Amino acid sequence: MQVVNLTPTAVLLLTAFVGRCQAQQSGNTSSPWFCHDLDCPSYITLDKGADYEKRQYPSANWVSVNVENYTYSAAVSKGFAPLFDYISGANKEGVKINMTAPVLVKVLPGDGPFCQNNFTVSFYVPTKQGETPVPMQQSLYLNSLPPATYYVSSFDGFADDTSVPAQAAALTAKLTANGEAFDSSAFWTAGYDAPYKLTGRHNEIWIRKADAAGGSGSTPAKSVAG
Ligand SMILES: *[C@@H]1O[C@H](CO)[C@@H](O)[C@H](O)[C@H]1NC(C)=O
Ligand SMILES: *[C@@H]1O[C@H](CO)[C@@H](O)[C@H](O)[C@H]1NC(C)=O
Ligand SMILES: *[C@@H]1O[C@H](CO)[C@@H](O)[C@H](O)[C@H]1NC(C)=O
Ligand SMILES: *[C@@H]1O[C@H](CO)[C@@H](O)[C@H](O)[C@H]1NC(C)=O
């Protein structure tokens, strides 16, 4: 095995370089590339590894619809339509809202293989509290998501009934292997591209970091031992 000897100067230079990169990453809330020219919620990158990053999101306003179905794809297309109508003017104020990113889908798995899953499909609305247009469709509701920290993994291609469960399982396995405390009751997908875009796509899986107090969170220790 080869041992690389670093001179003290080299070590100093290296750590200074790494330190500067980290300082630029954390606290940088400028829009990431995958938002392109769409408004998307700002966040702070707390940590960035090869497999996933840890992001802190402040509270933000979303408009949401709950859909029950067996499959992700069916639920997303069903939820997308009324949300698109809403931003196209189907709101009490009759205003058009520019498309934003991402389309966020909370996936709450059912209790068995033949159970329906609950999906919450949401559009980000970059408005101040109290200024969000009110939906006409009764199934839609304004949804202020509280501040939270998420573990986020990214994948390209399409988020569908094959990739989403596989990517969510992969992130769960990595978090468990790394001893991260996370809430295993649900996960989110975040999709940043229109369906007709074929290349350069960006999708994410979000899994919420467990609250320090525990709460509804489940630690990996529990799922391994239990
Ligand atoms: C964030 O990063 C971008 C691009 O790397 C840079 O132009 C911008 O100045 C940074 N903003 C802050 C607040 O550091
Ligand atoms: C699931 O979604 C599909 C496509 O929209 C729909 O045809 C089907 O009826 C839905 N299933 C249930 C149980 O709601
Ligand atoms: C919506 O998008 C258009 C075109 O990109 C832009 O000119 C306009 O300012 C945007 N409106 C809002 C409210 O952001
Ligand atoms: C899904 O939502 C329905 C209706 O709100 C509820 O009865 C059901 O228990 C939910 N299922 C899960 C897995 O949370």
How is this structure best summarized?
By secondary structure, this protein is of the alpha+beta class. 24% of the residues lie in helices and 26% in strands. The radius of gyration is 20 Å and the shape is globular.
Describe this structure in words.
The protein is an alpha+beta fold and 226 residues long. It has a single domain, classed as Alpha-Beta Barrel (Multidrug-efflux Transporter 1 Regulator Bmrr, Chain A), CATH 3.20.80.10. 24% of the residues lie in helices and 26% in strands. It has helices at 8-25, 72-87, 163-177, 220-225; strands at residues 44-48, 53-57, 60-69, 103-108, 117-124, 140-145, 148-155, 187-191, 203-208. Strands 1-2-7-9-8-4-5-3-6 form a nine-stranded antiparallel sheet, with helices on one face. Strand 4 (103-108) and strand 5 (117-124) form a beta hairpin. The longest helix is centred in the N-terminal third of the chain and has 18 residues, at 8-25. It is globular and about 50 Å long. Mean pLDDT is 84; it is low at 1-27 and 214-226. Bound molecules: 2-acetamido-2-deoxy-beta-D-glucopyranose (4 copies). One 2-acetamido-2-deoxy-beta-D-glucopyranose binds at residues 68, 108, 110, 118.
